[in-house]
Amino acid sequence: MNGPAPDRAAKTAVALVACPDYDEDRVEAALRRGVDLLGGIGRFASAAEHILLKPNVLTGAVAEKHVTTHPAVFKAMGRLLLEKGVHVRYGDSPGFGGFTAAAVKSGLAKAAGEIGIEMADFSSAVQVSFSEALIAKQLVLAREALDADGIIGLSKMKTHGFMRVTGAVKNQFGCVPGLRKGEYHVKMPRSEHFAAMLVDVCRRLKPRLNVMDGIVAMEGNGPGSGTPRPMNVLLLSADPLALDAVFCRLVHMPPLNVPTMKPGAESGLGTWAEDTIAVLGDDPARFACPGFKVVRQPPVPFDRSFPYYLKKWITPRPVIDPGRCQQCGVCSEVCPLEPKAVATAAPADQNSPPVYDYRRCIRCYCCQEMCPHGAIAIRRPVLSRLIHP
């Protein structure tokens, strides 16, 4: 039976529940507890409704790399909904490659098959107007995301080179189909503009519940090439901004240094302020991780019109490690610019890594995000480190 809904008049509720590993029974028990702390699954879905599960599937990666939402978390959430008589589908649009292959490699397809959840088709795009948008008055979104009665987001606790962390708010960007995501990077290279667009996408889609898989997080060179870091926690909230703010505080990251926080609060998406959030469940102090490897400084301002010396000496840039580079070409393929800012190695030098044209590079870091070999990192120039130690 569902418990009473938490009193949200005073504070926004974020459930924080311990979970030591991905044992399916323990994950399901922890998830049920978190949902019950928020008032029960009936607050978020009703029988016969069509609900879309939106995991974080950046790219095709095995679950053990902790790039994607873990199948055990996905499976547990699916079971809770199916028990309620909800019609459930799942989908995402990876940054590179097709979702079907990525779902198979990550284990999500197998988990979905075991409980009888069908895959949604995210290839069909619809342009929608959003008059209340901060910046993106026209959005291109997956039809199935728009047609669902509701969305439940299943994000992954990870670092992110551009937005500092990737969580509940940014997870909805996967509802922008395929290469169209790159178009937003080209149109909005400034971090504050891109963050406002992410807020617009999340506000338009209005996920009913957000779950963050932090049982094993990713620190360092995230969101695709970082290092797994056990955090042993699940976070849940109807407020995606508050959930992301709790994540930030667990790792001693000032929430306002994440670019989505300010526009998210100003637009009514949610709250980040500590005195407006009630953390329910386990004591956050048990899971605090001040040594979590994440860039805690706000993004350095960037504009394509900046003179080259500013781009060179102040703005962080993606850098390829020749020892790791496999010359696979993914970095060049995902670069949203045409012609690419990552040049393909000349035929006479096929064993050398690609070469950046930093004068054109817009510092979207898509190449770093999608490199399958962890060969690209974001390097902060000396002057940038002096400005933001």
Features:
nine-stranded mixed β-sheet, 389 residues, Rossmann fold, alpha/beta, Alpha-Beta Plaits
What do these coordinates show?
By secondary structure, the chain is α/β, with parallel strands linked by helices. It folds into two domains: 276 residues, Rossmann fold; 80 residues, Alpha-Beta Plaits. Helices cover 29% and strands 21% of the residues. Strands 1, 2, 3, 4, 7, 8, 9, 10 and 11 form a nine-stranded mixed β-sheet that branches. The protein has a two-stranded antiparallel sheet with strand order 5-6. Strand 5 and strand 6 form a beta hairpin. The longest helix is centred in the middle third of the chain and has 15 residues. It is globular and about 55 Å long. The protein starts with 11 loop residues before the first strand and ends with a helix. The mean pLDDT is 92.
Briefly summarize what is shown.
This protein has 389 residues and is of the alpha/beta class. It contains 14 helices and 15 strands. The chain is 29% helix and 21% strand.
CATH class of the largest domain: Alpha Beta
CATH architecture grouping of the largest domain: 3-Layer(aba) Sandwich
User: How many domains make up the coordinates?
Assistant: 2
Principal-axis shape equals globular
Q: How many runs of DSSP E, i.e. beta strands?
A: 15
CATH superfamily of the largest domain: LarA, N-terminal domain
Oligomer: single chain
Mean pLDDT: 92
Please summarize the sheet with the most strands.
Answer: 9 strands, mixed
- Report, as a whole number of angstroms, the end-to-end distance: 51 Å
How much of the sequence lies in strands comes to 15-25%
Order of helices and strands, N to C?
EHEHEHHEEEHEEHHHEEHHEHEHEEHEH
